[in-house]
Amino acid sequence: LEISNLTEKDILVLRLDLTDRSSHEAATNSVLKHFGKIDVLVNNGGRSQRSLFVDTNLDVYSAIMELNYLGTISLTKHVLNHMIQRKKGKIVTVSSVMGIMGAPLASGYCASKHALQGFFNSLRTELTDYPEISIINICPGPVQSKIIQNVFTENLAKSIENSGDQSHKMPTDRCVRLTLVSTANDLKEAWISDHPYLAVCYLWQYAPTWAWWLMNRMGKRRIQNFKSGV
Q1: Taking the domain 8-197, which CATH number applies?
Q2: Which of 61, 109, 197, 202 is catalytic?
Q3: Is 197 a catalytic residue?
Q4: pTM of the model
Q5: Record keywords: Zinc included (predicted)?
Q6: Predicted confidence (pLDDT) per residue in 148-190, tens digit
């Protein structure tokens, strides 16, 4: 049994809408007023997608980028200003293995995660004068969560009908533990996934031609299952 020494003063919960970028500065200031500092920012807000590009309204792609990408970098901007003043901090962003590879039915989601990868890898190069500010990208594979129940579909008004079985995915607590280990050790990038998804990441990184061939075969079956309602 673990006994926590936390008191009510050690906990502050603020409701935050990543798409309401005008509220992010005030939210940051509220945290600073309460705690006096921000040691770690974990960017973990976002929605996935399950739809074919040819069937999907462009408004869905705009909404994905507004939430997953622009909302994340907006909040990061306000927190980073504080960390630069302190010359210390960690910015942890939950990207995805989809930030490394491409996959069918998730073109918008993949695009948003690729954008986060490119942004934070570039931001890291702008912070070389601040060696104690860490930029950490976490790339999970499939994890047990409610992300499937809340995915974007062909249009903004439609929700998914069948979220499927979650049992084969990594347990949430294991993903969290590995994320914390990665954060504590200042890893620039961590792939947190079981096989076969982890093996596919290595293919995309080191043998992309094979990865493209494999994903075409796997993707064809996945699209067939999607159209069949599986």
Answers
A1: 3.40.50.720
A2: 109
A3: no
A4: 0.92
A5: no
A6: 888 999 999 888 766 667 778 999 999 999 999 999 999 999 9
